[in-house]
Amino acid sequence: SSQFNGVLDAKAVVSTQSTGDEARIAQEDADFKSQLKAISKQFSYTHKTFTDSLGEFLVALTSEADDSMKFLSLRIDFNEHYKHKHGNSFNGPYINRTKSVVA
């Protein structure tokens, strides 16, 4: 009888510990997901800001009278990745920059 009670007490302690561990793990998981979401938002904002700034910079370079600035624009976006990816948002001289430099 006393052995039986000892076993029950031991099982109760193990059960309480595993419930505590599960709660801790669930909290850590929720914290991680929250941090990941915040980092993702920050990355998206940084990506958009960088892309917009680079587009403005490339447009400004191609608008310069100095040919070396136009060539710098070609070197920065030599394969026209940003032009093709964001063509609608990069209007004006940026779209036709290769013609204005070569011609």
Write the topology of this structure.
Blueprint (H helix, E strand, L loop, with lengths): L1 H62 L3 H10 L4 H5 L11 H6 L1
Helix pairs in contact: 1-2
In short:
The protein is mostly helical. Helix content is about 80%, strand content about 0%.
* Separation, N- and C-terminal Cα atoms: 100 Å
Radius of gyration: 30 Å
Structural class: mainly alpha
Helices and strands, in order, run as: HHHH
Stretches where pLDDT is under 50 for at least 5 consecutive residues are 91-103
* Tally of separate helices: 4
Your description of this structure?
The protein is an all-alpha fold and 103 residues long. α1 packs antiparallel against α2. The longest helix is centred in the first third of the chain and has 62 residues. The C terminus is likely disordered.
